[in-house]
Amino acid sequence: MTVAVRFPDAEAVVASALAAVAAVPVRTVIPAPRPTSFVRLLRTGGVARTTVTDAPILTVEAWAQRPSQAAALAATTRAQLHALAGTVAGGVTIGRVTDVSGPQNLPDPVSDQARYTFAVEIYLRGTRFTPGS
Amino acid sequence: MPVGNGNTDAARIWTTADVYAGPYVTAAPTNLTTALNTLGYSLVGLMSQDDGIKQTFSADESDKFAYGSILVRRTSIKDKVQFGFTAWEDSDIVYKLAHPGSSSTTTGGVTTRKIKARNIGLAIRSLVLELSDGSVAKRVWIPKAQVLLNGDQPLKDNEIAGYPLTVDALAYTSGGETFFYQELTNDTSATAGS
Predict the structure, then answer these.
(1) Every domain of chain A and the residues it spans
(2) Cβ contacts (< 8 Å) between B49 and chain A: which residues?
(3) Separation CA A83–CA A3 (nearest Å)
(4) Nearest to B150 by CA among B165, B168, B133, B128
(5) What digits encode the pLDDT tens for the residues A18-52?
(6) Which of A27, A42, B54, B107 lies deepest, with the highest CB count within 10 Å?
(7) pTM score, two decimals?
(8) Of B143, B191, B149, which is closest to residue B171 (Cα–Cα)?
(9) Are B187 and B13 in contact (CB under 8 A)?
(10) What is the pLDDT of residues A46-80, one digit of tens each?
């Protein structure tokens, strides 16, 4: 027997869960006007790991005024993301969270604003999908 | 194959897991909410995520063939259930699980441990495995668990010096029934007769 599973919008689920604990705005697009400090999440890959589990790779950008502040924001956000493992956010069960790429000092090439980035893989449980629904 | 009617909600992936240990025999949890330390259990602590908790069923099995290579029966004796996990904390509770009968004393902030040959009789404990998958929870009570350190402990600079522990679920008799372990779960998929 096979079944179809619909996986959740990883950016929306994780951004919402992260926003509940973060001290800065969490967005999936760069806000306008741009805050001095914020976190941006982008799905940059990942595949289903089991029939019911998607494993999106999320690239995380921590923006701040100075590199040291961006580094601190990235470290805090990384810890907050790892702490989501085993929780339920918006009805979606979040499984293991693993590092894919550690923090990098990667200033925005356009504005030169300080920015650290890193990537994590997050297991998200899907729900049964009925064709035509 | 066409899309079927399987229930993906009933497929379990245990996203969190903890092991609790108590002396033999510590009472069974009767629900999924009462804190296990109030029953006399102690949290074993961090475990290797990659190793997880491995459950193994084994038995001595033998095929019985009639002349003509006709398989008539398969016998199975000596059923055995084992659990395995790697404890990552070098705590006193893990030490005592890993080295039953060894001594440990602390004076002035300095702990002295003398590792002796294992006293297998002291390796028998009661354990509870606490698992969750979103809102679905399960508690596995192993009333008579023989815990043995079994494997390699890496002492190096790029690995955690974990304690690989093997748990044999020994037969336990209660209420007229002999069993290896007992589960409690709020998983509606597990409803008896469903």
Answers:
(1) 7-127
(2) 96
(3) 31
(4) B165
(5) 999 999 999 999 999 999 999 999 999 999 999 89
(6) A27
(7) 0.89
(8) B143
(9) no
(10) 999 998 999 999 999 999 999 999 999 999 999 99
Q: Let me know: does A92 contact A8? Beta carbons within 8 Å.
A: yes
> Could you tell me if A13 and A2 are in contact, meaning their C-beta atoms sit under 8 angstroms apart?
no
Distance CA B43, CA B21 (A): 7
Answer whether B107 touches A (CB < 8 Å).
Answer: no
Among chain A residues, the shortest Cα distance to B132 is held by A86
Q: Going by CATH, does the domain composed of A7-127 fall within 3.30.230.10?
A: no
Amino acid letter, residue B2: P
Chain A positions in Cβ-Cβ contact with residue B4 (cut-off 8 Å): 1-3
Q: Which candidate, B57, B63, B44, B53, places its Cα nearest to that of B16?
A: B53
**Reported ipTM exceeds the 0.85 cut:** no
In three-state secondary structure terms, A55 is strand
What is the distance in angstroms between the Cα of A102 and the nearest Cα belonging to chain B? 17
Are the beta carbons of B15 and A93 separated by less than 8 Å?
Answer: yes
Asked if A1's CB is within 8 angstroms of B8's CB, the reply is: no
